[in-house]
Amino acid sequence: MKVSTKFQHLFNLTDDTGILQHSLYSIPDLTKGYTTDDNTRALIAASMLYEVYKDEKYLELLRRYLSFLIYAQNSKGYFRNFMNYNREFIEEVGSEDCFGRCLWSLGYLLNTNLSNGFKNVALALLKKALPNVANLNFLRGNAYSLIGLSLLYNSDVTEFNKEKIKNLMISISKKIVQRYRQNKDGEWKWFENVMTYSNAVIPWSLLKVYTVTKDEEVLEVAKESMEFLAKVTFKNDYFKPVGCKGWYKKGNEKPAEFDEQPIEACETALMYTEAYKIFKEEKYREKAFKCYKWFLGENSRNVSLVDEETGGCYDGLTKDGVNLNEGAESVISLIITEMIVNHTDIVFK
Fold it and tell me: Which residues form the Non-reducing end beta-L-arabinofuranosidase-like GH127 catalytic domain (predicted)?
């Protein structure tokens, strides 16, 4: 079953500046402003929608989101993240996660059939950003960056030294593998002593590294950690992410039950789609589809998170039911997940 909507909520949340961060129920909440996190992921979602439907309205969204990233990048090549409704960034440097997500989206753009008008901007932003990659310290910032670097490596652009990109990927992946070796303990096969947010991005990034380097150790760690994550999140044959109200600490009997957030289903689907691409095992494609079905009601609450009226996505599952707000991260997660499971050959890079 496909969601019968054209994702109107993506347009509802987007103004002349970019995509707004939050909504109160389905109405955009101007008081919360914007984030680069959301606009850079919206860039991927809009790119996928355009590649599938070839509708000019998605190109207009692309222009706004890419323009937002131009404004977000500071003079040193990092990206500011939080912007108020007056179009003023409230910080000079955003998180490393935000930086890595920007590399991911810009790298993704280079692998599309979009015109050079879009790709040249992506290249310009990447040129400013790349010198900072080697200085990243945080696990997920490095993981998102690896995904972006792999996309850059596999693109047709000639402006970058591909061997340097590959060596940078090797260097970063070694740090992640080392984190895994340090924290792996018996049945606990993870990169930290607690599972928190965006867990799937870490093994996914190592799968991306393997596609470039063919490093078997990297592949082994990716597969072990991916299987451990599956044991945690697929106990009842449906997807149930680690709850953000407490996470999952090593030694605890089980993960926190809630809240379950859409971004986790999206990124887990991306990880499994990559795994299917590498291993060609049907179980991975099936798990990616189960992540999609989480949005449609195959979840711990047996309730759909899709607002059929707006084309939006509710913000998650809580101990009390459904969070009926419809923020940017949620609808973007729904779009990306639907695109990759239903149009894999077109949109998955």
Answer: 42-236
- pLDDT per residue over 126-167, tens digit each? 999 999 999 999 999 999 999 999 999 999 999 899 999 999
Q: What does the alpha-carbon distance between residue 312 and residue 103 come to, in Å, rounded to a whole number?
A: 26
Residue 133 in contact with residue 164, Cβ under 8 Å?
no
Number of continuous H segments (helices) and E segments (strands) in the chain: 13, 10
Task: Name the residue ranges covered by the structural domains of the chain.
Answer: 8-347
pLDDT (tens digit, 9 = 90+) per residue, 287-299?
999 999 999 999 9
DSSP state of 235: T
Q: Rounded to whole angstroms, what are the CA distances from 168 to 92, 95, 132, 161?
A: 26, 20, 11, 11
Alpha-carbon span 103 to 97, nearest angstrom = 10
Cα pseudo-dihedral 296, 302, 305, 306, rounded to 10 = 40
Fold of 8-347: Glycosyltransferase (1.50.10)
**Tokens 């990559």 correspond to what residue?**
274
Distance of CA 33 to the CA centre of its chain: 20
Structural contact between residues 195 and 248, judged by C-beta atoms closer than 8 angstroms: yes
Instruction: Please give the backbone phi and psi of residue 190, each rounded to the nearest 5 degrees, phi first.
Output: -145, 170
